[in-house]
Each structure stands twice: as C-alpha cells, then as structure tokens.
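Hey, I'm writing a tutorial for new members on how sequence and structure tokens pair up, and I'd like a real worked example in the thread rather than a made-up one. If someone can provide the structure for the chain below, I'll link this post from the tutorial.
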Amino acid sequence: MKFVLSAAKRKTAIARVLIKEGKGRVYVNDIPLEIYPVELFRNKVMEPILLLGREYRDKIDVVVRVNGGGVMAQADAVRTAIARGLMKFFESEQLKRIFLEYDRVMLAGDPRQTEPEKYMRYSARRRWQKSYR
C-alpha cells in the first residue's frame, strides 16, 4: 500500500498530512471534511483536491492532523501540506504546473509571521501617548 507523509506551517499552525490509497475521503482531526464546522476552512482545504481531477481524487484518502494558530492559518497550512503531498504521491510534473499556475503559495508557503511584542508596550508597534506637542 502506497502512502505519503507531508507537513506545512503557516504562522503558528502546523499541519501533518497522510495521503494513502483509498476511496476519496478527507479527515481533519478525525472529523470528515464534509461536516467540518467552518465553511471557509472546508473550501480552502478542498482547493488542491479539486484541482487534482475526479479520476485521481477517488483513489486517495487524506488524513490531516493540524494544531496551533487560528482557523485560517490552519486552513492555509493544511492546503499547502495536501498540495505538496499530492505532488509526491502522484509524482507528476503536470500537477506541479497546475498548482503553481493556480496559486504559487499552495506549494511555496507564506513566510510572513507576526511581529513580536516589544518590551514595556501593549503591542508590537504601539507607543505611549504624549500629552504635549
């Protein structure tokens, strides 16, 4: 039985993906993707699988473990991990071109991070107010 492990990060979210031969099911933290509560999350995660095409989509199962970060950071991390895993699983150069043409971030990732909070301040850039000119 063939399987591929893949991982990706976005901000502080980390997604680990197992892609194996199966019937076209997708699980995120042991919940089927079809009943996952956040619709934007579902749509974002399904992008690489929909780009794959029906003939390949029904031959694989995707099992995802994701933690850390917020909902959209998790969605981006899962999306990137699935796209990278599908490329390894099918070993297709055409699939890579399709993903890059659709959205480069799907494979390359997004390096942006939040700026750390500074000493004696409320946030990263906020300063104390002055009452004079």
